[in-house]
Amino acid sequence: MLSIFQMVQKYDSISIIGMNKNVGKTTTLNHILKEARGTMSLGLTSIGRDGEEKDLVTATEKPKIYVENGTIIATAKQCLLNSDITREILKTTGFNTPLGEIIICRALSDGYVELGGPSVNSHMALICDELKNFGSKLVIVDGALSRKTSACPSITNATILSTGAAVSKSMRVVIEETSHTINLLSIENEMDHEILKLAGVVLRSGRVGIIHRDNTMKNLDVVTALGASKEIARAIDENTSHVVIKGVVSDNLLENIMAITKMYRGVTFLVEDGTKLFLTRDTLYKFKVQGGIIKTINPIKIVCVTSNPKSPYGYEFDRHKFLDGLRNNLNVPVFDVIGGE
Predict the structure, then answer these.
(1) Which of 165, 213, 167, 187 lies closest to 311, judged by CA?
(2) pTM
(3) What domain range includes position 310?
(4) Mean pLDDT throughout 192-197?
(5) Which CATH number fits the domain that encloses residue 208?
């Protein structure tokens, strides 16, 4: 099996997202940084804050982020002041966070850094572009708690999911939740180019659109998709082929549509990408079994999953059983970067 770094180096940007806090996301990042040492120029940034000495929620010790000389970093001013690298300031971005303005710099020495980046997707996409412009061959975005958006295809080319015992005391629950998350992120994408073209029109001009079987379309007059279940249900008829939704698709939205009409059966619901799906296993199963179809406009590439059998809350799994359980239930490579497998 290829190493994690060998798997990611064919992309120019990747994100690392976590199922929860303390699942080994920073350890995964440090593992990649160590493997990449001396081979290529890296760019680093984060959604949220990472690399601090203690987790601000659990007050547990956290691994620091160690970078080598030449790494390009985009981080908040306060985080930069907390870092011990010698650095050259390359650019101030004008993007402000609670920890100060995002500053782009080059490490002039090896050392520890604290990352704190923007929470706005459009800002993150621009920062990734800037890191590439300054010479980064691979940009790594460190995700944050419950923020899947850094896996969005408009920000990074591919993503790594970190999971671990911190998700639940039950190994079975952790494996099931991880499997479900992978299923949502990698849900089937629409292949019809004409439909994708029409869906793009909807995304640029509104929040929800209906595509008919003759490829005509109309936008619904709604402010957000989340509260539009009645409008969507009323707009679907026997001539509807697709419902295009910009934004989040929730349990509540699908449950309401299923309760109001049966016309959704056989209709494809198109979402931007898998990060917009906030659905439980039960709702997704019920929707599909009753004839509903969900596809994405932009597919997400899942490179691999990393596992952490230890929890900061005083318990841990048998790492071999946990690793085997994940590998038997997931259709992507799984690594235990802490145990070395």
Answers:
(1) 165
(2) 0.90
(3) 4-186+300-335
(4) 97
(5) 3.40.140.80
